[in-house]
Amino acid sequence: MRFLPIVERELLEVSRQPKTWWRRVLAMGVALALLVFVYLVLGQWYSPSSMGRQLFAILGGFGMICAMLAGPLTTVDCLSRERREGTLGLLFLTDLRSYDVVLGKTAAASLNMVLTLMAALPVVAIPMLMGGVSLMQLAFVMLALVTIMFLSLAIGVCASSLFASSRASLGVTIGFLLFHRVCLLQRARGVAGVSAP
Q1: CB neighbours of 23 closer than 8 A, spacing ≥ 6?
Q2: d(CA 28, CA 118)
Q3: Tell me, what's the pLDDT at 195?
Q4: Domain ranges within the chain, ordered by starting residue
Q5: pLDDT for 196 beyond 60
Q6: Which of 80, 70, 84 is nearest to 105 (CA)?
Q7: What is the pLDDT of residue 92?
Q8: At what angle do helices 166-195 and 135-162 cross, to 10 degrees?
Q9: What is the pLDDT of residues 159-175, one digit of tens each?
Q10: Running DSSP on this structure, what letter comes out for residue 71?
């Protein structure tokens, strides 16, 4: 038996769709348009190095928002739809394991978001060429964006496995992500308060 057969089948099915390619092109176009717009608006007030830092911060912020929305937009209904339609039990009549089913449905639902984020990450690297941003900062931001996206996808899949209703799983996913974001902001404020003299 092959390793993760549903993942392979679902990824092949999704990758053959033309909208997969067009979403990557659209993501790159939106990121470039945002970069050009911010550069034209802020370019007259900042030096090139400080402009690179501003562009990097703005693009990183938009990337974080897109990464956090990955779970609510894609994975909150991947397992609950199968349960509502009554086809989830049919998958377990075969010799598949539960992780095969969960990983297959997660991979199929999240492939477009993963490819969209990966298509936009090179645009985030453009401010590094302007100066003011180091390679280490770029690596940390890219790693953080990928981690946030996979956290959001995992929360969406978990909520989808717990609830049969897509609205309930969407509400739980958004609520948990907002709670997590508030906790991180409180922790950052506490660390900044402690480090201040």
Answers
A1: 112, 115, 116
A2: 9
A3: 53
A4: 5-195
A5: no
A6: 80
A7: 65
A8: 140
A9: 888 888 888 888 888 88
A10: I
* pLDDT tier for residue 22 given thresholds of 50, 70 and 90: confident
**What distances in angstroms separate CA 117 from CA 109, 112, 160, 172, one per listed residue?**
14, 9, 22, 23
Rounded Cα gap, residues 165 and 131, in angstroms: 49
Q: At a CB cut-off of 8 Å and minimum separation 6, what does 81 contact? A: 166
Q: Are 160 and 77 in contact (CB under 8 A)?
A: yes
pLDDT in tens, 57-106: 888 888 888 888 888 888 887 777 777 777 767 666 677 777 777 777 77
Mean pLDDT of 145-166: 86
Q: What tokens were used for 160?
A: 């989808």
Query: Residue 149 corresponds to which amino acid?
Result: M
Query: Which residue blocks in the chain are alpha helix, DSSP H?
Result: 5-15, 18-42, 48-68, 70, 80-85, 88-91, 98-124, 126-130, 135-162, 166-195
121: tokens are 């990450």
Q: What is the 3-state secondary structure (H, E, C) of 122-168?
A: HHHCHHHHHCCCCHHHHHHHHHHHHHHHHHHHHHHHHHHHHCCCHHH
Whole-number percent of the chain with pLDDT over 90: 0
Task: Please check whether residue 155 is in contact with residue 177, taking contact to mean a CB–CB distance below 8 angstroms.
Answer: yes
Predicted structure pTM score: 0.78
Whole-angstrom distance, CA of residue 84 vs CA of residue 75: 15
